[in-house]
Amino acid sequence: MRADRVLAPFGRRTAVVTTRERFGAYTVLRAHDALGPRPAAGQFYMLSAGERWGGGDGERPFLARAFSVLRAPAGTEELHFLLEAVGPGTDRLSELRPEDGLNLLGPLGSGFRPPREGRAPLLVGGGVGIAPLAIWQDQLGAPVPALVGFRDHAHARGAAVLSEPAIATDDGSVGHAGPVTELLMSELEREAGVEVYACGPPAMLEAVRGLCARAAVPAQLALEAPMACGYGACFGCVAPTRSGYVRLCVDGPVLDAADLEAVIR
Questions:
Q1: pLDDT band at 4 (very low <50, low <70, confident <90, very high)
Q2: 148 and 233 assigned to the same domain
């Protein structure tokens, strides 16, 4: 068992939504979770709506969805989650309002580890992959640079959940015009004494892995994958590593880039 793993209480529990905020294309739900431990950055929860969680009368319920925790403010019992409505399940979660129930299981998986000795953290995120970077900024404490990429202006508004990020957009509407990996490339050329922490779509993570390998810079990647259970029973989120297949929900979602031959094949 990894030392950085915070164990979840047994079974699903219900938190109460306290606040719903909009950040452009994204929704942030804050919920009061009095029964769970404080998560480590990079861990995730399986979420579902407390009511109307399914395809309609007489239809099968939706599976719970996996979401990295966005923030767990110290001294509180609050959990924050960043959502983008892209289908029926995320549509329903994004509809939740204060006093609604949010069913959750977690925290699950293994999170980020502190940087190796002599290295400074550098965060890189794309889309909803910015979520675990926000809580990691909080837990590291000192100002930590973050490079984040989005498709357009509406999505770039999600960068507000981070402290002073450098922004790239595919359409050039905000910040650097181009992928966030171009910002990373420039940063690695200036400063190689970093350890990269990244989360985002597979193509972005593969580019991050390659850039860090060429620069001899260690990287920890939070891989995104569809998850049906969240605790290793279904083998639906397996990923290949140099030493064999792992289940991202229990052996990840954070993996060392050096353990991967490729994020995508």
A1: low
A2: yes
